[in-house]
Write the structure tokens for this entry.
Amino acid sequence: MECISSSLWTYQSVSLTRNSCIACDSQVSATDQMSRSEESQMIIMEELQDEDAAQTERLRRALTARRHSRRHTLPEAVGAPEPREEERSRAGMAAAPAAPRELPPVPSTSRAGSAESSVRERMREKLKAAKSKAEITLLQEDPTPRPRRLKSIKERKTEVRLHKASDNDKFREMQEDESHLPSKIKFRDTVKKLKEKSTYQNDLPSAEEAYNFFTFNFDAEPQNMKAEARKRNELNEEEEAEEECVETQEGEQEEDETDEDARLAKDDLFIIGQTAEDFLVMEPADCENYSEQLKKEKEFLFIPSMLAVPASEKMPRDIQPRYLEDEGLYVGERPFVSQSNQNIIENRILRQEQGKEWFGDDGKILALPNPIKQSSTRPPIFSLEEGIAPELETVYVKAVKMTAANQYLLGPGDLQGPFQLDIDISGLIFTHHPCFSREHVLAAKLAQLYDQYLARKQKNLTKLLTDKLHVLRNAVQSGIDSGDAGGPRPVAQQSIPEYKIEIRQTRRLRDAEQEKDRTLLKTIVKVWKQMKSLRDFQKFTNTPMKLYLRKEEVDQRLDEEAYEAEIQAEINELLEECMEEYEKKMEEYKTELKEWKLWKKTQKSKKKKKKKDIHEDEESVEDCDLGEERVKPIPPKMANSRDIEQQVREKADNCRRKPGEPALIPELVLSGNITPTELCPRAEVLRREDVKKRSAFIKVLFNSKEVSRTVTRPISSDFRVHFGQIFNLQIFSWPESLKLQIYETMGMSSTTLLAEVFIPVPETTVLTGSAPMEEVEFSSSQRVMLDHEGVGSGVSFSFEADGSNRMTLMTSGKVSNSVSWAVGEKGIPLIPPVSQQNTGISSALKNIDAIASIGTSGLTDMKKLAKWAAEAKLDPNDPSNAALMQLIMAATSGEAQVPEFFRLEQLQQEFNFVSDEEFNRSKRFRLLQLRSEEVSEFRNYKQVPLHEREISEKIFQDYEKRLQERDVVDSKNYLDAHRAVVANYLQKVRESVINRFLIAKHHFILSDLVNEEEIPSLGILGLSLFKLAEPKRPLRPRRKERKKVTAQNLSDGDVKLLVNIVRAYDIPVRKPVMGKFQQPSKSSRSFNEMFAASASAQSPPDSPDWAFSQVLVRPFVEVSFQRTVCRTTTAEGPNPNWNEELELPFRAPNGDYSTHSLQSVKDEVFINVFDEVLHDAVEDDRERGSGIHTHVERRWLGCVKIPFTTIYFQARIDGTFKVDIPPVLLGYSKDKTLGIERGYDSVQNLSEGSYITLFITIEPQLIPGESVREKFDTQEDEKLLQAAEKYEAECTSAFPSRQCLTTVIDLSGKTVFITKYIKPLNPPEELLDAVPDSSQSAAELVARYVSLIPFLPDSVSFAGICDLWSTSDQFLYLLAGDEEEHAVLLCNYFLGMGKKAWLIIGNAIPEGSTAYVLTLERSQYVIWNPSTGCFYGQYDTFCPLQNVYCLISCDNIWFNVQEHDAPARISFDVTKPKRWKSFFSRSFPYPGLNSVQPEELVYQCSDKAAAVELQGRIEKILKEKIMEWRPRHLTRWNRYCTSTLRSFLPLLEQNQGKDVEDDHQAELQKQLGDYRVSGFPIHRPFSEVRPLIEAVHSTGVHTIDISNVEFALAVYVHAYPQNVLSLWIYVASLVRNK
Amino acid sequence: MAELHLLGQIVGGSGFPQRRLFCKWGLQAGAAWRPLSGLTAGQTHVDDPQADDVTYWCHPIDVHYATKGLQGWPRLHVQVWHQDALGRRHVLGYGFCHVPAAPGLHSVRCATWRPLGERRERLRRRWVGGGAGLAEPAAAAAAGACDRFRLRCEAGGSVHLQLGVVLRHFARYGVCCG
């Protein structure tokens, strides 16, 4: 049994391995093996089952003897054996089916527990049937359980018993105790049996016995035992049932137990009682004859033979093997398998059922083209010699100090450093040169032809095509044959027409090739003949070229046969073709004929009809006419076979070698002698000398810059130049272009550029050492005529004596060079990263001649590649093309959208959740992404909705619009094309700068992140303790430092603007309506007069009676900010005192309170001063007694504007500011008398104008943003920059509060040394011409001109990031800039006018850090505010400049090192080194820097017409706006007044707004009469419309709601050069007096 | 269109032979993943613990990914660097770990390793500083652990991470997370 099973096992495993062989799975893993063996075990067991019947029979026989003996020995021991036995058997029979249910599940005990048990389970069930038969005989004796198992069961049982001590268990235990017994019995039995047998047989056991012995299945017996145990259990249960009524269970069980014990003892005794002979027997080793073994094995094993299998067996009957290879299809090369192995597997497969299916058409086993896996499934064995994968290569990295450059772990730019490109220029060959003699021309031609010949020969297309033709013909023939012979094979049948077409094409191609070959040969011979004749003619030779024609004799007969066969085949094919064509045509003809006949018939019938009915429709007539054009089809002609033959023969004659004719093989050698110069004619000598004079060199141009050039080498007599130089170019980025320039020099002097050759940038795979030499052809269009034998270039010449057949040749040649990437240490190629280049192509492409066909650059161009592939008709089945095909599929299918990495994540598409489009469509993702990219619209978007549906499409509209309209100039808002363009440009600069700084903003330094508070030392602690002890003094409050708030914690409503309006001085007062009043007109005063003036110098006060009689002014202040308006109470008199605090809420744009957002707030705080006028509104005098009816009218007096950013940066603004009062205030006058009378200090009264004292701050205090610490690239000298840094450091360490400015950033973001901005520049001629005499008024005019250029703070446009300084011409072009630009321009103008001028860097109110201009006027320093055009004396109290930090001239910087920095308290004498620290000194002299300013400013003339047009448009817009602001009232326009006002305005401009006030009043009074007029002109530099509207709105003219009010508005635009516009708006309101 | 929001921190490192460590980190994800916001790479400060050998960085990570596929689940790789007394730096360990796939807060320990280099390099490292580092750390991180057996390495310490993972809409595409 064991033997059988093992042999079965082997069979099984053999078959298994065989199966695995078929599956070509060479490696069967261990686990596989395991599972298979298990499987086979199962099978064995099933086998066992089948033999069970026989086995039981045998067993029964063996056991009957045993039972007998037992019956003899046991009767006394067991109380009642017989009935019990019977009972058991009965019970067993009855209980057998129910047994499994009652058996508790066998818990696993050993390692293989579960498997074992499951096996057992199954076995048990299988055995059941057999068992029930043999049960009666087997029951008691059989059980031979393994002790191990029993023991474990026992152990388990004890455990179980603790929980539930059932009787069942106890019985079991009892039975287990018994277990030793059966095993012994069994052993004894077998021994006995053997002994018995030995008595009547020889010592050798019979085969059957041996078989029984070895196959006795010990394994099965535990089951038997268990079955028995089961039965016993049941028996017991039955017993129990019986006994329950009689006795207590306990007693019975005990009894039983004792019973068993006794039995056990008996048995033991019995065994001991036997002698050794009873169970020992000597026997020789069992051995089987080898031949017998073989014989047996043959029954089970099949050994396939190694002999080849005849093809007939492999193929289905009557079918010839078909070889795809011969049919021209690509068949992959199979890996080598030894023939014997192949035979074995074939034999084996054939034995299988349907084994023939395994064979293909060609009689070979079906298999993949290459069944070997590309990669090993087993991990590679690691050996040290083997190279480590490049990505795991380690390098020793020196410990280096940190640099800020490599900030991020992963990012581009890991691979930096110089890369190297090696350019090897080996030489130059001219294929034509002006100095070529005629012979040279021919020689070059010959050489070219010969090269062509060699190339063709190497390719040998003719042969290839001929072979193909043969194969195809054979295939067709065999197809036809097989079709004739046996059952038709549909595949072959189908492909025959295709083959035929293929044959035709191939034949055509072959013929063409043959013809080419032949003509080439002919031409070579012809040229050679020409050359020979030329040499004979000129009697000297110039070239060493010689052509030999080698004849190869051929066997004439064979040749002829082949020739004839070929022709015949061709004729046949042609005939066939013709036949086919004929048939086709015939078919066509037939159908046509049919149609024609049909038509004819209808025609006839129609005609008949026509005859009947003459009044036929025109249409039908037409029809007939048309129809008649039909021609009767002509039957096609049958082709004549003779014609065809003739054709074929002619063709063959033309393009093929005649049969028997020897094959000619040309050979070109350079062994000829050149005639020495002495023997040549004079012309030739001249030519040779000329050649000797000439030499050539080549320049190498990298990105069109010359990087190197070869040495100059003479051109040799054979027109070759050898250089042999290699240039190593160290580069940093991927080259854009590589170019060679070929130069020729003549003698000493002239050098001419012959040609330029572009060299393709090598592929990354082309490395030095492996790069092939390439020849690049060049040609030049140069025309050269020579006076000697040389043929020249671009000149026609002829070989013929009569001058016919002229030809023109151009200088041309070839440069042989090679360009490759150098290989660095360790073999790393020094190739720059090709990030821009789309090199998605793997190395698989290296060896395909795609490179040859589309050029190296094409490899990166997927489309080109795909096109090439389509044209080349690559065999898609060829595995060597697989990578390429995949690539092409990707390239062509994806609508030219080439994936960047075509190999990575191949299955991504299949496993995607959603498509790309859907992914990109997600609004939420887009919003999130845009927000994180800090796109301005979404930078501060808070709380992106969670669901798509909650995001509206509108969100992106603005953004998309902006993206679209980036380049569209919108002139609607600007009214002026130039300004629109400029605004657009500024917007772009702004964006680029902002983007750069947004990146820079994310670079943090330690202090940004770590807020380390110092631990207070003991001293400070003590002090603070001491402070606690101080007495509290509530009446003396201390100023506490306010806590600064970081921006991120803020939200709307948290921030407030506090404006404290303290008092005002010199508010204009009302004039009595009718009062005629003369003020002495002020002439223009000189500077000296103005500043040295005292109170007495001012115009004397007017008559005091007037002063007292007039109505007082009732001013109040209104502060408007972000359209929130707050006002103070009304005070009285021209010097009111309010002392009120106004609170205005601040709202940041988009609710973003981050620093950069706050910096870019463009809002301004308007502080408007109004006069409150009360009018008696009582219509009826009778009511006067009973009520008060007054109209309150407010009249604008002036305003102060402070930009929010100023407040933000300054944290608080505290000071007295000049109120911007219009030059004319109708109905008001400046009252100076009061001031004097009240005794204010005289200095204040000096200047004209009103002043207001303000204190503005933000609550809570916001931390202003810091400027960005960012290094900019620069073109400055390194030494200068270092000096500047040092200077700045020194200055700031001495005076930390003073700003020292040495370098600034220009518009392109480069650092520029500041003095480069200062340079004398010419102011517009127009201005200088206007006031030719006085330098002072000219200066004032220039200052005014500069101030007319609109002010645009950088901090607004560039979000407080930094100051960008534009040069003066940029400034004038942009027409916008901040203080620096204004100051620089003004300073430059002053220098240009010959003044001494400096730029002051200082601090002023309200603008903060700013730039002013200082001039020296006759020992008097004058400070100019460039953005207003005002000027102040050094000691002027109202000068807005508070601190002076540096002075800058065109060649030096001086830093203020004096104790004070207020302009009044310092000396401006820069020559004193103790007061001013200069940058350039004797130790570091001024190096003479080039200014960034232009040489001269060019001004556009002012366009008067455009100004007039603009004027009209603005007027219209403003009028509309005013009407819009008064929606509930009728707005009447007083035309008369308007025209009057319009006439005033040019005058105002002319006088620059000075001293015209009273004229207006008088004039208006005169003109209008009985009107109460209040109005004023507003003067603005023009930039946009919006601020103008804002300005008009802030004056509140429109707020008057008296019913009969009328308005007047006039606009005047004055154009200055360079489109600088001065804009005046005159607004007035009129109320008719009653 | 599923989303993964990774919030957490690089808590610190422990078990490194030196102090004064800093950590460079980066998140790598497949092509299907798109970071919507947050930095996917960065570097911590240098921490020089005085008392313990545990280095604390507490470096925040907050990345929001959107994905259209499961492939290339993001993984975090770290490089621990040492800054010596002279202010020079060299690498002490490379390591990587996948972002946990289950939502919730996870504390992850990322073990690191370091190439040993040749004997000469080791000597040099001992006396001069510096050390063998990977020529292409990014590629090595991509290669992960599968090819590392070719290298002679040394175990470094480990980096401790606390990663909170918020997943969204994965269930919609039949991906059961956690």
